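User:
Can I borrow your eye for a moment on a structure tokenisation matter? Would you put together a sequence-and-structure record for a protein of your own picking? Please set it down just below, with no commentary around it:
AI:
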Amino acid sequence: MSGTEKAMQGVADTLREFWAHRPVRPRAGRKAGGVATGIALRYQIDPVIVRIAFVALALAGGVGVPVYLAGWLLLPEEGDAVSPLEALISKGSSSMSHGQTVLLAIVMFPALAFTFGGNSGFEVFVTLAATVACIYLLQKNRGHLQPAASTEPLPVPPAPGAPAWDPLGAAPFAWDLPEPAPAPTPQPPMRRPRNPRVGLMTLGVATLVVAASAIAGVWVPWFTVAHTVGLVLAVLAAGLLIGSFTGGGRGLIWLLIPVSVAGFGLTALDFDGDPTRLSSFNETPKTVENVRERYETSVGSVVLDLRQLPDSGDVKTAIEVELGEVRVHVPKNADVTYRCEASSIGELDCLGKRAEGSSVDVSGEDLGENGEGGLKIELDVQASVGEVKVLRD
């Protein structure tokens, strides 16, 4: 057997061991289905870290949702012999009813459709591969640990009239004896000190990644803002994973959350402009020649008032805004051919035609109050995120 075959066999054995000793979803201390809490108790790590990991996976193309649902279906609940899905196929009993199991399985289909139905299939598969790798590392390094207890045992009530040294009333014949001397108070076990260097080193590496991406972006177009945020997320996630084993890096959670939200916004919205280019236009041309062929800005607004133009001639202009507002005023008697679009999300109100939502557009021709004839205007207005209005007022 070659070295590669041995390595693959070792990975398969570790994953089989994970399944044989898989986490159990506790009844206490859980927020939803108990998947994150069960994983944390099984491998003796902070439940907050596991929950943050699921949130990060949910923001990474929605991968966290089907992964969590799969854990809910495949991990048994505390006190059950098998998981809900195994109980559904008559492999044992589970406290979850068959109806609830079927409902969760039905919810899985739209979750998978949302995750794999986008244009980021490669990223989704990479994220799933990273998730399997994390499970492998947890089982490989912490699979030998005994699961932590989810709740403390309830105290047994003392017997009526029993002294403090015999609360269960096991030796009532000796209750007349004097109270024994109190035992020395045991010292609490020393807690493993948290390692602050993990967090500091992770922040240092993240800073270097940002600086290197900014320099490389001058020559390599791939290093966009969205890709740089993705690299920073990967560094922070790696720091949290290392910190879960070494007892440090927990403060990185409060940085991971806003960076994840920013990364989700950058990938969900079709924003291709330069965010540093902030500009606004507010023009009222009085001649056809003064109308520009194109008005373009990344972040800002465009207000174009064409009501001062003469009653004859041809005007053709395009307006493109990545994030902001566009408002065009046209004369009452002009013949206007228009196309308005919000490529990501926005609201359109163009000469009486309205639309709002994601990836919406309207188009048409409006001849004004006097019908065909006179000034002809052709408008092509596009916004990625924002509001577009073409008004005849």
Observations:
- The two ends are 81 Å apart (CA to CA).
- The mean pLDDT is 78.
- Residues 79 and 95 are 8 Å apart (CA to CA).
- The first strand starts at residue 281 and ends at 283.
